[in-house]
Amino acid sequence: MNGEPSSAEPIKDVNAMDVESAKVSRASAVPGSENGATGGGETVPAANAGGSSSAGDECYICLAKMQLRGGTPIFNPGCGHQLHMMCFADAFAKGIKQCGVCKKDLPDIAINADYSGPPRRAGSPNLPPAIAHAPPHHQPLTTPRQNHGHAPYMVPQHRIPNVVQNVPASTGNNHHPRHATQFTPHNPEHDDALPEATQDTAMVVDRADPQTLLRLSLEAEHVSIPGDQDASTTIACTIQAKPAPSIEHHSSRPPCDLVAVLDRSGSMAGAKLAAVKETLRFMVEEMGENDRLSLVAFCTSTEELLPLVRVTQANKQRLEDGITRLQIGGGTNIALGLRLGVDIISKRRQTNTVKAIFLMTDGQDTERQDWREAVATAAELNCPIYCFGFGRDHDSTLLSDISGRTSGSFNYAETIDTFRPAMGGALGALSSQCVQNLSLLFISATDVTITKVTSGGQACQDVIEQDGHAVSVKYADIIYDERKVVLLEAKLGRTFGGVSQPVLKIQEASFRPSDAPRESTERTHLTALPPTLEIDRTVNDGGSAARTRRRPVVREIMRVRAADAIKAAAQCAERSAYAEAKELLQPVKTDLENLVLGANENTADLCLTPNDEATLTADRVYYAPLIGDITTAINRMSSYSSYETGGGRHWSNEASTTISAQRSTNPNTTASSRHYQSITSRMYSARSSERRAPGGNTGGDATDMPPGSLSLPKPF
């Protein structure tokens, strides 16, 4: 593509073509026309009259209906799969040289100097004013090319490119292939059987006392509140899991069933596919003989490369053969891959206690099929879905939504070298589950009403019942070393001064230990519950005690505020309101910095306790990563380039969920990641980062890429 006209065919000025010529070009370009010929790569102009293409004729990039008249220019690359000229030019400029449907080579073209490039979103700060205001000769696309629901892209009709094409001869059927909507169901008879849980093959050698797995505590935000006034306070319920036992031996942890759902679309070729294969080999090395691994590959269709196979020494070659079979295919049908992965989990005849699905992709879901039913089934089975988004072209909003509906997490792998530790961290979290199906029931006093509950992500459910006097909170799982804080906002009625007012108690706390035997329905009810929380109601003398707040609770309030600010700012960035995004983030950063410096303390707004050196140090350690993440958010949402093309959207999706859910399996994305990553997850991340392929290359795969090409971080 050199920008010069081809000697074989002169440049055609599509703007000069009349409507009748457009009809002829359109007829010859559409597959199945009267003469049966493949289109010659003609560009069909957008005329002023009405008219549209046949039903279902959509651009396979932006999915908007293509119109013969009154729409945007249409381009046929010669294979019969038409698309908008602007979409074609954008893809070609990015180095995409094959049709997105049939993968045939696209023709060489030359675009004249008057072509201004792909369309941009109206209102973007780098748009010329004439385009931003969209006069009548700028026609919006029927559907935005990205971020459905946002401002449409504007196409300047007076700058339609002139095109020269060298169209390959037609071969075979040029009709759209039937997009796969079904898959071959999983046959559970192909799964490896699990060993009987005898004394010699027990899943866990030494089970911990279930009563020691979790510790609960209650603490109110305010030290005291005057009794002669209605008041509000925040109550923090802290859930602390016990430290992880040694997991150097596989028998010291519960075994798992893991299904890896892997994107093998064309964009995964080369270094990405090599990194996936090498990480799968790391997983095989780390898993034990009672663990089972299944591999599912998806592109436009999906394929079960391996059923649930026990990771034994005898099966190592079988597993390696399955990894080797992972080869590049066509488009990206995420829903179909998920459906097969969930089908494998749901049809198990024998079940390991711990199970999960790892979903890995680097692109947009080109097939747009419904994935919600499959994810709902996974949530019902208490099966977390850990999502991994490669590079900057994936749909992080979709992936974070999928993981957020289960107890998994979304992991943004901006470079090849950040993918392996993210995957290793997820495996570490899966290997260190402490309890499953944790259920908490809070009961408030008759003169206390719970108005709001903030319990975090990972499919946690919280329900306020009985007019605010009962609250149910459920977590799908808690991992070893993990700390969760539930915040309950309470409204307190008036009472006498000089008394202690009962506020809240934990009525019940129960869970299923992750190390329980496979077929057991055992459920543990904690007996060591904290006492009923009481708050001193004082005589109102205007003293500082009436406004003194406890530092540990204020930390959690600021954590939630930071997560909410990042999420709200990202919503502003989605509509290109970057200045508004900064206005939401900057006050949070200032307040966090003042808390570290103590600038606002002993004022009418803030008086904190305790003030010993250990607590002050804990404040600084806690707030530092939050300040770092808010600062990064301001930078990532400062412009179109930093948010749209610089990975800002993906970063903000992971950051807000990590801080809100208080869990991370990815050590390299946010400043808060390591703060919320468990010790075991961190250890697995380090192991996966240190892994070397045969021959000393970092993560290399000689069959997929040149030796040593993964030795340095590279953006996708």
UniProtKB/TrEMBL annotation:
Domain VWFA: 257-438
Region annotation (Disordered) ranges: 1-49, 172-194, 657-716
GO molecular function: zinc ion binding
InterPro entries referenced in this protein's UniProt entry, alphabetically: CLCR (IPR051266), VWF_A (IPR002035), vWFA_dom_sf (IPR036465), Znf_RING (IPR001841), Znf_RING/FYVE/PHD (IPR013083)
Keywords: Metal-binding, Zinc, Zinc-finger
Top-rank taxon, per record: Eukaryota
Name the UniProt record assigns to this protein: VWA-like protein
Organism per entry: Gonapodya prolifera (strain JEL478) (Monoblepharis prolifera)
